[in-house]
Amino acid sequence: MEFTAEIKKATDPIYNKISKAIPDIEWTFHAPYIYEINKLKKEKNAVILAHNYQTPEIYHGISDFSADSLALAIEASKTKADIIIMCGVHFMAETAKLMNPKKKVLLPDMKAGCSLSSSITGDDVRMLKRKNPGVPVVSYVNTSADVKAETDVCCTSANAVKIVNSLGTKKVIFLPDDYLAKYVASQTNVEIISWKGTCEVHEQFTDTEINEIRKNNPDIKVIAHPECPPDVINASDFAGSTSGMIKYVKENQPKKVMMVTECSMSDNIQIDNPNVEFIRPCNLCPHMKRITLPKILDCLKNETNEIVMSEDIIRKARKSVEKMAEIGR
Ligand code: 13P
Ligand code: SF4
Question: For the sheet containing 238-239, what is the strand order?
């Protein structure tokens, strides 16, 4: 696509904001797509929701709402748009569909999965329930609709402790992230039965890496996502969901910070926090990175890659997401 004078004029305000994150030469490639997508989404009454791990040209260039998984699910339930484009991974698009079954929900690349979501099936949850009769099941939103359909209440990293405590039981089955389960167990007296799922991005961080960075940057603040291994959380100054981490930086304005999470988040947040120096550990989520501007344009134009689920699964899975929203209120 051609970078015309008209496109340059229309997209310059966006580029002025994000020029520190994207070199000029790359912008000439992105700008025509940003221009077309922003035009088309208005014509089609579509809304673009983007997870915090999307790249800056998506996060700042075309997204109507960028957030963590919890806020994306809530926003999906409120939108008046006819079409929802989810710039994130498959479970996020499914959750948007559950919250809004009458809307068309599109995912620009159907292969955008998640190692946590693929670590467990509905059959696995049925087996766990048989082994632990009467014990409620709390599932992370990073799960398929089949797993959510077997779940009593969902949670995200932003509300996991609150959800577990709200059930008032001695034991809870907490799926599928073993590290998040350990984090929750450290914050509550409830006995946690966990599953061996891990996030392939966050499991790579180590406390040795953090201690090494602290040695060279004594004044640094280290903030980690609770999907990281327990040693990493213990070596950090703060743990929270992606939006919790963003809020920490915004409110504390540390001189230097290391966000122990997916790499694009530092690029996105640096733009709104120019006085903070970001030390970037570079672990990318290959699933999140499947979402690109050309795929978004194609999916919006042709309305392809629609999320389709049976009414039965929608009805069952939706309950667990609604219950999460109820407890959160
Ligand atoms: P949150 O945005 O809810 O913190 O989750 C992070 C994540 O794993 C998304 O892939
Ligand atoms: Fe899944 Fe981890 Fe990627 Fe998030 S960052 S989508 S949890 S693999």
Answer: 238-239, 221-224, 256-260, 277-278
Tell which residue, 62, 110, 108, 58, has the closest CA to residue 85.
108
For 74-85, the pLDDT digits (tens) are 898 899 999 999
Give, using CA atoms, the residue closest to atom 3 of ligand 2.
285
| pLDDT value, residue 329 | 64
For the purposes of burial, counting CB atoms within 10 Å of the CB of 201, is it exposed (0-12), middle (13-18) or buried (19 or more)? buried
What does pTM read for this prediction? Answer: 0.95
116 lines ligand 2 (CB under 6 A): yes
* pLDDT given at position 70: 83
Cα distance between residue 61 and residue 22, in whole Å: 11
> Tokens in use for 241?
């969901």
Query: Which residues line ligand 1 at a C-beta cut-off of 6 Å?
Result: 51-52, 68-70, 142, 156-158, 199, 227, 241-242
Domains belonging to the chain, first-starting first, are 5-113+288-302 (3.40.50.10800), 117-199 (3.40.50.10800), 202-278 (3.40.50.10800)
